[in-house]
TrEMBL record:
Keywords: 2Fe-2S, Iron, Iron-sulfur, Metal-binding, NAD, Translocase
Similarity remark: Belongs to the complex I 24 kDa subunit family.
The protein's name: NADH-quinone oxidoreductase subunit E
PANTHER family registered for this protein in UniProt: NADH DEHYDROGENASE [UBIQUINONE] FLAVOPROTEIN 2, MITOCHONDRIAL, NADH DEHYDROGENASE UBIQUINONE FLAVOPROTEIN 2, MITOCHONDRIAL
Function of the molecule: NDH-1 shuttles electrons from NADH, via FMN and iron-sulfur (Fe-S) centers, to quinones in the respiratory chain. The immediate electron acceptor for the enzyme in this species is believed to be menaquinone. Couples the redox reaction to proton translocation (for every two electrons transferred, four hydrogen ions are translocated across the cytoplasmic membrane), and thus conserves the redox energy in a proton gradient.
Species whose genome carries this gene: Streptomyces roseochromogenus subsp. oscitans DS 12.976
PROSITE patterns (UniProt xref): COMPLEX1_24K (PS01099)
GO MF entries: 2 iron, 2 sulfur cluster binding; metal ion binding; NADH dehydrogenase activity
Binding site for [2Fe-2S] cluster: 91, 96, 132, 136
Region of interest called Disordered, as start-end residue ranges on this chain: 221-247
UniProt keyword annotation of Repeat present: no
Length: 247
């Protein structure tokens, strides 16, 4: 059976979102270029991209709902169903997995009692595995609402989600203190983070990420290749002896 039209936003919500949407659209020479931030905007309203939100984006940009749906379903940053205040993503790509990402993800599934993409009963945490957090130099990495928590262990990850569920303050390894997923979505829509001091807290690349840049600038000593053993075995032939044997 065909779906009924998406329900409309209440008038007051629609008016507020339209004002924000017009501000976003005015930043682009082509209005359809505003679709990504508009999807973040409607996600900040309900915590995920609903059919109502997609219809709103289509109306504001003179697009079809099919065009909006194609974009909303392509990017994993847009949620298609209700989710928690905190999106906890555990990297399970190669390096993070080898360094302990798989163990962290399995531990959190058991600890929280949820599977991949599921939300705890209190609505606080949605757990998911992520293919890459683009922070391999700090593996294994967990992200919460797109903020980094580096060099994690199963124990530290359990403490992290417990703090989130208890409402205790949580500080990312690199970046400003956490806000809710809805608040994060509004920031990603292009609106300023109005929390006092939050912008100043926002971090940049960490030391491990900057080693290559420092080497290129000559600010760090070149890397040394160290033999895995403290000294050569007693019976290892010298370079000259090896050449003679080769002859």
């Amino acid at each position: 059976m065909p779906e009924l039209p998406a329900p409309a936003y209440p008038d007051d919500v629609r008016a507020r979102l339209e004002a924000d949407a017009r501000e976003i659209i005015a930043r682009y020479p082509d209005s359809r270029s505003a679709l990504l931030p508009l999807l973040h905007l409607v996600q900040s309203e309900e915590g995920h991209v609903t059919r109502t939100g997609m219809q709103f984006c289509a109306d504001m940009l003179d697009l079809t709902t099919a065009e909006v749906t194609a974009v909303a379903t392509f990017y994993t940053m847009y949620r298609r169903g209700p989710s928690g205040d905190y999106q906890v993503g555990v990297c399970t790509n190669t390096l993070c997995a080898v360094m302990g990402g798989d163990a962290i993800f399995e531990t959190l599934q058991e600890h929280l009692g949820v599977g991949n993409g599921e939300t705890t009963d209190d609505g606080k945490v949605t757990l998911e595995h992520i293919e890459c957090n683009a922070a391999c130099d700090y593996a294994p990495v967990v992200m919460v609402n797109w903020e980094f928590f580096d060099n994690q262990t199963p124990g530290s990850a359990k403490r992290l989600v417990d703090d989130l569920r208890a409402g205790r303050p949580v500080q990312p390894t690199r970046g400003a203190r956490l806000c809710t997923f809805k608040e994060t979505a509004r920031i990603l829509a292009g609106f300023p983070d109005e929390r006092p001091g939050a912008v100043e807290e926002s971090g940049s690349a960490g030391p491990a990420s900057l080693v290559g840049l420092r080497l290129a600038r000559g600010e760090a000593a070149p890397a040394r290749v160290v033999h895995p053993r403290a000294q050569e075995p007693q019976n290892a032939p010298s370079a000259g002896e090896a050449e003679e044997e080769g002859e």
